[in-house]
Amino acid sequence: xxxxxEKNLSVGALMHQGLEQAARRLGGRxxxxxxxDGWTFAELDARANGFAGHLAASGVSAGDRVAVxxxxxxxxxxxxxGVAKLGAASVLLSPAWKAAEVDHALGxxxxxxxxxxxxxxxxxxxxxxxxVTDVDATRPAPVDxxxxxxxxxxxxxxxxxxxxxxxxxxxxxVRHTHRSMGHAIGHWRxxxxxxxxxxxxxxxxxxHILGLLNLVTAASAGATVRLHARFDxxxxxxxxxxxxxxxEMAVAPIAIAMANLPNLEDYDLSSLRYIMWGATPxxxxxxxxVSERAGxxxxxxYGASEVPVISCNPVHRPDxxxxxxxxxxxxxxxxxxxxxxxxxxLEPGGTGEIQVRSPSAMAGYLPEEATxxxxxxxxxxxxxxxWLEPDGWxxxxxxxKEMIKVxxxxxxxxxxxxxxxxxxxxxxxxxxxxxxxxxxxxxVAAVQADPARPVSAEELQRLVADTLATYxxxxxxxxxxxxxxxxxxxxxxxxLRDEWVPALAGGTAG
Length: 510
Hints:
Helix content is 30%, strand content 25%. The protein is built from 14 helices and 26 strands. The chain folds into 3 domains: 12-230, Rossmann fold (3-Layer(aba) Sandwich); 297-398, Luciferase, domain 3 (Roll); 404-505, GMP Synthetase, Chain A, domain 3 (2-Layer Sandwich), CATH 3.30.300.
């Protein structure tokens, strides 16, 4: 394939080809930085080829799934691209997960191999059918070409599986193909106006859809990425100043931390074209404080694990950017609003469920039976509530109907409820979100306890903390005589939230 053909590859191409093309086009330019180290496009593509060879020698082949559980590091980039080059799919497991969460994810996806670092190596050992590659102990030599897959690769093949929690069960695996990820990469590149001159940072976990999308889109666009092992606001600000970062990504807690940082004015952020705000609706007050103090504007956007890029403020029209809207639907993406009760499609101005039709939509869930309810006539049902202006501007009035968003992470009430119901003293329970200025929301559990078996709130909080990731921990436990439910059995979490949030926010409840 000649260079001109590579430049004109249509969206829907194989996900790893973005890095391959950048390696040929940009070769010795730095793609990823971490600390004082840097790796070029050519070097990382060669490392990905070597990693694909290591996997092939370990018995992985096209159509297989490989679990990837590691921190934000350059090996994640080479592992995901190496898996894709072989025709396999990466199953992205959060490094924050504990044994029960990992077992659930592995049971859904059945990977034949795993790639991990740190404590995740021991956690995965014996839990997957095949071996576990420790990226700190195994460093395959870079090679010019990847191994030949056992069959030609198709854009309909799975490329990655990420996890998205639902309100009625445990986390579901979201299946993306090369085609859907190819379209998502094209959409993200276009709405950010990402190009070879851009430099941005990734501090979000790479196993989250946004972290993954940022990395593969940067490769496709030829942009440079700085990786951070953990979030440290002042380190991010130092790097914006030192690296002359051109765009930044943020969720509400980061924005709030910036607004409250006493020495924010000490940092030169003039290189930034904008800060992209995602995961939650914009807090206009916080955004304005940061803009006034740092001289940088915000670019609100909206997406989901199932449809990574839905809408964004028009990047080439800064005069039109708005803090009260998630922007306009991405070209090629259709958005509509359906009545929450009847499902009837509403005219602009009507509030209901946001539904999306896009070529970047997932292929489906695992378990497979969860897929049917996720779509209505080919439109993905986001579960988010909002409305549209006549000219298409998207407004989100309520995040996912019952989902709890903690620091940008989705937390399923039913997952925490499952843990609590395993305690012998818990007869019934329901989990809802308490608004929090820094985290966005925090989980609260309403528990009906067995009078014959007293239990303390602290004991139940410890149970959740020992079982689930830190961001899923319960901030408050409130005891109720009974959990309100519909005749169908569905818990009335909104009723509980309306009843308890005022007392909890005011500090008058335990």
